[in-house]
Amino acid sequence: MAKPGFSLKSSLQLRLTMGYAVLIAALLVLMNTYPLVMSQNLMFRSQQTALENQGALVANSLTTADNLTPETVEQAIAPLDKLDVSRLLVTDEAGLVLFDSQEAELTGRYALSGEIVAALEGNNAFSSQYASGCFSSCSARPVMTRNTVVGAVCLYGEDLHQGALLQELQRNLRLISLVVCLAVLALFAAFSTLLSRRVGVLLGGIRRVRAGEYAYRVTMKGHDELAQLADEFNQLTGRLQATEAQRRRFVSDASHELKTPLASIRLLTDSILQDEAIDQETTREFVEDISQAADRLIHISEGLLSLNRVDEGRTIGRERVDVNQQAEALCRLLIPLAEEAGVRFQETLGEDCTVRCSREDVSQILRNLMENAIKYNIPGGTVCLRTFRQGEEVVMEVEDSGVGIPEEELPRIFERFYRVDKARSREAGGSGLGLSIVLDTLRLYGGDITARSAPGEGSCFTAVLPAWSETEEEAEP
Ligand code: ADP
Predict the structure, then answer these.
(1) 439 lines ligand 1 (CB under 6 A)
(2) Backbone phi and psi for residue 206, each to the nearest 5 degrees, phi listed first
(3) What is the spatial distance between Cα 442 and Cα 446, in angstroms, rounded to a whole number?
(4) How far away, in angstroms, is 406 Cα from ligand 1 center?
(5) C-alpha 189: how far from its chain's center?
(6) Hey, how many other C-beta atoms are within 10 angstroms of the C-beta on 171?
């Protein structure tokens, strides 16, 4: 089986290690080359200046001689102070050696090195190299008499002292590089272990929650990104836990609600089937009860289907709906129910109450609120329905003079399957889903609902929906 956690961790670590390694290698290469190259250049330049100065001195002293011969050359350079060069070579205009301080036997032979040739052409030339801890340089310049090249002076210099200094610098740089390398490695190992441990804590938490342990929370010290990630994860898990608890409660409530009418149907059918002497009238009564239980089952199923639709964010449609039209149609439909309960209707319908919703949903919202106002009312009571425009919203207010709701129960009445008076709700055919459907539907269209109530004085439900705006109408395809 694949180990996703391990591969993630290793790939992260690998990428970090590779990144750091490349960076450090580049830095070390730079540190080991740049100072050395710069020092070498400086040393070459100082040798060039020294050799060129001395070369100019020798060339000047030779300019005075009319004719360059080994003798005139020796005579001209004899008075010069001791030169700080390893070799001095003088040639005539054809490159024939007239003087060589190192190899006297070369006198009378041709010395045509690149530098001497350049000098005989009238140019100054310089070359240098560094090898095996020694700087070797060569500087050549022409000897001029009356603007004519009559010969060349070539000076050689060797500097072991500077070479040794450069070698020591190289050794020191290597040592520093090694120390830096080890320190960075140690720091990186510590940092990477710490990081892996923290990522491991997060991964462990994710796995435990994935396995269903929703109460698990990750503990991560600090305020860095990982600590923030852990905090976000804990909040997410908290929501997951709440949703899961809600789901379980919903399933258990729904099963319980469905079980009650099913149990009565079972009981009633058993009674009919087992009692052979049962008379027709009793059978009819039982069948009517079965029909009522079936109605309740249908009512609950319809409620569950509505909730499911709203949960999925599906609207029936969005059109221009006149709330007053729906309210009037609904009042006509509910008059028999109101009369049966001995309740009177009062309607106050304001102007310009159009919303962007579906007719069915507006009707369902009003129906649930009005039915509740009748169901939880008292004989001789009233139900007032008011609609009015308030800015960009349309308000629908349903107020009754019924039994009311205790203050502590008020925050819970919009929960699914929650009932204040269970017996009364069941008796009236309620499922405990009506108000949660109302709230969820309103929110789906950008609206909301609030309730105020006092036991024995009645309740008032205020629902709002965004009003239909002409700009929306223009935007319609
Ligand atoms: P039900 O199907 O039980 O009416 P609802 O979700 O519509 O479910 O209402 C939830 C509970 O809120 C009801 O059981 C009832 O106890 C209380 N309730 C709702 N509307 C009113 C009202 N107008 N007056 C008093 N109590 C109400």
Answers:
(1) no
(2) -60, -40
(3) 6
(4) 12
(5) 26
(6) 10
